[in-house]
Amino acid sequence: MKSSAVVLRILVVLATLGQSSWPTVAMASSYCKEMATSTADRPHSVTVTEFGAVGDGVTLNTKAFQNAIFYLHSFADKGGAQLFVPAGKWLTGSFSLISHLTLSLHEDAVIIGSTDPVDWPIIDPLPSYGRGREFRGARHQSLIHGSNLTDVIITGGNGTVNGQGSVWWDWFRNHTLDYTRPHLVELMYSTGVIISNLTFIGSPFWAIHPVYCSQVLIQNITILAPSDSPNTDGIDPDSCNNVCIEDCYIDTGTDLIVIKSGWDEYGIAFAHPSANISIRHIVGAAHSGAGIAIGSEMSGGISNVQADDISLFNSLYGIRIKTSPGRGGYVKYIHITNIVMNNVETAIGITGQHGDHPDDEYDPNALPTIDMITIEDIEGTDIKYAGLLQGIQGANFSNICLSKVHLYVSSKSPWNCSYIEGFSNSVSPEPCEALDKPYQASLCYTSEHLDHKNLVQIL
């Protein structure tokens, strides 16, 4: 009898889950665990010195990296291969990876990006952007690049990738660039990507940019750039799904982790959303940006994001969602929890008037939808403003839910809210009127909706 009752309860729960309109990030969470414990045992390995590389920090080794990787093509269907970078300073221009490859750096290895822009090839703009992010037309290729790859690992014993970005920042400030600056790592249209146990410093632009990728793990990395370096985001998953970012220290000029999905009419047409993204155990400072950010390029849509256990300091924003008229798209089913902030100017920001446009062809009536955003278990000290939450008249910025948010704020006007609506519970200082409604779990994206663990608890 007891057995029958248990079976009945299982069927009821499964039926409830099947009928629920709530999406989950269970896939991403499960994938995080699977990827974190997986290793690729490559049966073939070569060292970059076998192809003439010299680790003196002066010799340009682009051809050595390219030739080594070309050689390793022959092992792609034989279990894959490893390219090992030993101790030394390895100056190089851009090079492209292949499938079933591990790029492994010794703990005393430093890959150094050339300061000659000729060594960073010019490539086509991303289709979801329609142009380079900073300039119309093409853009510079990343230092470590790859497209249409499967099973790629970039790792090491905490070796370093140094982009020597200061020359690029000066060119950008002096308006002497003709193309958008390069990333340190950009992988496109790729599946099964691991980036781990490395330090990335001085990126010319965004440091790590997976775009149109799936099954991505970024783990145990450090990203550093000076506080005044322009637009040096840390990690920017862009039109990606099933992404895990965990156990990282990031200290950069702008956003630490920012989720994107295309720019205005190009992102809308390309229609490749970012979804199922898990971010956890992150420490860092976003001096002129946000710790966890979404947008402003979000026209393909962003959903099912979970951020947990984040420690932020010396930042302009703690959490920020950025969009504008013309973006279209949506940001929904976002759950951000267990955040500690210190010396942050604005703890929570949602802005509907942020960012420029790729050209004059965007539709100003393409309004974004911001819905089902839950932020809970937040502690903040030395905060100037609790929240700057400004939607767009006529757009849907709804079900913004705050719970157990406690901020020590210096401003006498801690909240600034317009064109938003939502709910709150145990929030101090007292939230703005638009959010001062009793918290309703049925209308807020809570932890119960994140995965199916509650099935076990119910049984």
Describe the structure.
By secondary structure, the chain is mainly beta. The protein has helices at 2-19, 26-36, 62-72, 166-173, 264-270, 453-458, and strands at residues 44-47, 56-60, 81-85, 88-92, 95-96, 101-105, 109-113, 122-123, 139-140, 144-147, 150-156, 159-162, 185-188, 191-201, 208-211, 214-224, 241-252, 257-259, 274-286, 290-294, 302-322, 330-351, 369-390, 396-409, 415-418, 422-428. 13% of the residues lie in helices and 44% in strands. It starts with a helix and ends with a helix.
Q: What descriptive keywords fit this protein?
A:
459 residues, mainly beta, disordered C terminus, disordered N terminus, four-stranded parallel β-sheet, 20-stranded parallel β-sheet, globular
Q: What's a quick, concise take on this entry?
A:
This protein is mainly beta and 459 residues long. It has six helices and 26 strands.
